[in-house]
Amino acid sequence: FADLVLETWDLQCERNGREHRTAEMGCQQLVVRRGQPFTITLHFSGRGYEEGVDKLAFNVETGPCPVETSGTRSHFAVTDFPEESGWSAVVQQQDGGSLSISLCSPPNARVGRYSLTLETSTGYQGTSCHIGDFILLFNAWHPEDTVFLRDEDERCEYVLSQQGLIYQGTRDYITSTPWNFGQFEDDILSICLKLLDTNPKFLRDQNRDCSRRNDPVYIGRVVSAMVNCNDEDWGVLAGRWDNHYEDGMSPMAWIGSVDILKRWKKFGCQPVKYGQCWVFAAVACTVMRCLGIPSRVVTNYNSAHDTNGNLVIDRYLNETGQEDRRSRDMIWNFHCWVESWMARPDLAPGYDGWQALDPTPQEKSEGVFCCGPAPVRAIKEGDLQLKYDIPFIFAEVNADVVYWVVQHDGSQKKSTHSSVVGKNISTKSVGRDSREDITHTYKYPEGSEKEREVFAKAEHKKSSLREEDEGLHLKIKLSEGANNGCDFNVFAVINNNTDTDRVCRLMLCARTASYNGTVGPQCGMKDLLNVTLAPRAEKSVPLCVLYEKYGESLTQDNLIKVVALLTEYQTGDVVVAIRDVYIQNPEIKIRILGEPMQKRKLVAEISLVNPLAVPLNNCMFVVEGAGLTDGQRIKELEEPVEPKAEAKFRLDFVPHQAGLRKLMVDFESDKLTGVKGYRNVIIAPQPK
Known about the structure:
Residues 414-443 are annotated as: Disordered. GO terms for molecular function: GTP binding; metal ion binding; peptidase activity; protein-glutamine gamma-glutamyltransferase activity; protein-glutamine glutaminase activity. One of its GO terms (cellular component) is nucleus. By secondary structure, this protein is α+β, with helices and mostly antiparallel strands. A nine-stranded mixed β-sheet has the order 1-3-7-6-5-4-8-9-2, covered by helices on one side. It has a six-stranded antiparallel β-sheet with strand order 19-18-17-14-22-23, sandwiched between helices. A hairpin with a 5-residue loop joins strand 20 (400-406) and strand 21. It starts with a strand and ends in a 5-residue tail after the last strand.
């Protein structure tokens, strides 16, 4: 027999991409999911393959030093039936000189970039030929993959959807901001693989790191550490919270992960400036979805940052309601992290499913700024000793807040108010643009027997709340929404739930604030020395907050913190109430003109009305949307936008992917920043 000569081959990127749900990554490279067969075609010249005469075998290798014992190299022969375990290659069909072969990786294979080599031998003669590279991802569709997710709608949302909503604002006024995850956009997959190859564990021991890439727990931990740069590693984002972002991008300005990851690569893996919690979480979510691990961004309102681990957050106020900065413990208005879905074979049964991963640099874990994966179930059950970092997240959703009022003589009075931590934990619903409340997955109902059991297990003594039906009760109310550029009223509502007259002093103070709890200058104040309350009476005291007072110092978080302090003269008791008011930005209007169809031009009309009493300068719109705009489109307006005038422009774009898409817009100017808007567009497929 003459030698078998391989002439050409076809990795069938397009067909395999469709079957493996990776087609949107483009058909220039073969991207497949583990445990699922993919087909390649070999063309021989001269004569075709003859079973029993010719031997065919494949070699697959990943990582810098592939070895069989680490699972980074495998050699397997072409057979008639697939192997039980390990890699396999099976003849599918033969047609003259062309041969279709189905290859399949085991469902626990290492993910990453592989090289594929074919070895042919006839008799004693053998040749080998490198026929290309392919990338192997986790497979949420395969029942034996550790990231297997049963529900198809959930797989579509948490693995395949390139766009979503992230919840911000305050617990009393929840807002959503659109985000372009863009995990299938050009070059993002190779950037995610580069991120794995620049992580310190890889640089320390490349072989060991690559051999552990079959484990989503390990990958999650690496990604959580690599999204921030606090460890002098090559992390993606630098965090900053002090409202000085001039030498980079303000965290509020981003509308997607693609821009951030591309900048990181372009500037030689230098950290991109700047991120805050939702940016860290969204970028980590993009990387995890890209690698095939189901993931979502979640927001926890009134999130505790307990630095000393005692599950108590002590806050100190002076008699005018100003915070005395004595405690590193903070209450964040909201805090975002990521949940990723995976089995936990490293733990006792019962902890599979959603795992919390927090890439925002806060505290070190095993010497590195990363957090998780922590089984959400373990957080709910108070199993603080399990891996990884459960006590920190348990505190974020369960810590107690105690307010101490520091009198002028230095003595401290404990307020009878207990603020509540871990509220309205939120994520985007599956397949819809509405909010899903997942608080019940993190904690049992407040005051329930189960909650008491969990706290006992976690050695957490929750301070008993004084019943609202006795003594004095204080609340801050808002009559209607607060709009940027306008004055608004807040009300301190006092209830005397006793049978005697009460005489009190009421302090009301408003200050601009950031979402991590720090406050700026005062923008409204009232001090009433003589408030008399009849028995069982209610009194409402208004405070008008003027735009001319808050406008200059409003941060890009658009928050105003209102503190009310009620001191009763007779007993000296102090009651504290705090409310964060979210200042609403104007709406960005988006109109789509034309019939939305793949590869056909569309026009978007984008506009916003300046709500302020002053002109807006240096106005800029940034538009992006996976599958719609081919990267970012930036429009700078030449003229200032006068008060009550409209900033407007038209954008032409050609959608290159069909299906439901989001067109996302960010508006920046000197006085109005980080304004977001989006529009859902259903793109019809191109007629065949």
